[in-house]
Design a protein that fits this description.
alpha/beta; Rossmann fold; 2 domains; 7-stranded mixed β-sheet; two-stranded antiparallel ribbon; vWFA_dom_sf; DUF58; DUF58 domain-containing protein
């Protein structure tokens, strides 16, 4: 479906038709994992404290009620009463590095699919949706609004920028995710839900901004991965180019030691990304171009829904 979507970008009617097909696919596969217990899905931590209960390992220590704990001589927490009108923000990295993929599709397609999945799930629950789109070293803010028409306009804009990132006019340098994270922290005035969609192959220093967001909002970091980034095929001499910096390199992929060093470096890089996300207090979802992306999202949403307490942070590499 992804390749069809990219070919349809040049004609607005075709783009609308394919986005409608995408909505239908998401509705068929995802709706069952979303509808039902509102509190179990987009757990927006409210400002009003609810009933107290005994602390269990894994609870957020910020929820500890020290007065109640002192009276009962046992540690108690108070679960916040969830907001039923939640602000959902999408931070979508549409930089040139997303125009990379193998037979299963490209990462930029996954970025659109992930944004659509979180967006449609939010509209089903009558939440407001906003977006910060990162491209060509710049960012664009789509303001908070409710309704499917606003979401479809946002997805259409992502599709347009995807086409632009697939044909970059010139290298703009390594992507810096920090300004986009800072910007969404500024415009997201109410506590809410933020999905950060990126391959996280960006300039260092974004961990602090992600941590600041997680202190106030529920944050999910959606990591986009292609298998060729993890393992080099043995195909002989291979010319590679960094789409963001323009640097080029020719490597001999028949060199077994080179492939082993590459795989080890890639493994350590992904481990660092996962550690940063987890240490920042965000949830972690990894989407791969060679796997069923909608199936990965369904499993993630089902796991979220079945957790007893929505504000715990975990890593779901599914």
């Amino acid at each position: 479906m992804g390749s069809v979507l990219m070919r349809a970008h040049h004609e607005q009617p075709a783009t609308r038709r394919v986005l409608a097909q995408l909505e239908l696919l998401i509705s068929q596969r995802l709706a069952g994992a979303v509808h039902g217990d509102y509190q179990g899905f987009f757990p927006g931590p409210g400002d009003e404290a609810g009933e107290g209960r005994l602390y269990v390992p894994g609870d957020d220590v910020r929820m500890i009620d020290w007065n109640l704990s002192a009276r009962t001589t046992h540690t108690h927490v108070r679960d916040p009463i969830r907001d039923h009108e939640l602000d959902v923000w999408l931070v979508v990295d549409l930089s040139a590095s997303q125009s990379f993929g193998t037979r299963g599709g490209e990462k930029r397609e996954l970025a659109l699919f992930g944004a659509a999945a979180f967006g449609f799930a939010a509209t089903w629950l009558a939440n407001r949706i906003g977006a910060v789109l990162l491209f060509d070293g710049e960012s664009e803010v789509r303001p908070l609004r409710s309704g499917k028409i606003h979401l479809q306009a946002t997805l259409h804009r992502i599709a347009q920028l995807n086409t632009r990132s697939a044909r970059p006019e010139r290298p703009v340098g390594r992507t810096d995710l920090r300004p986009a994270l800072t910007q969404v922290g500024t415009v997201a005035r109410r506590r809410g839900f933020i999905a950060v969609i990126s391959d996280f192959l960006v300039e260092p220093g974004w961990a602090n901004e992600l941590h600041r967001l997680s202190q106030r909002h529920t944050v999910v970091a959606v990591e986009l991965v292609d298998p060729l980034e993890m393992r080099l095929p043995a195909v002989g001499s291979l010319a590679v180019e960094d789409p963001e910096t323009g640097s080029r390199l020719t490597v001999d992929t028949l060199d077994g030691q080179l492939r082993e060093r590459y795989e080890e470096a890639a493994r350590q890089q992904r481990q660092r990304i996962a550690y940063i996300i987890r240490n920042a207090g965000a949830e972690h979802l990894q989407l791969r171009t060679d796997q069923d992306w909608i199936g990965q999202l369904v499993r993630f949403f089902q796991l979220r829904r079945h957790r007893q307490y929505g504000y715990r942070r975990s890593s779901w590499v599914v």
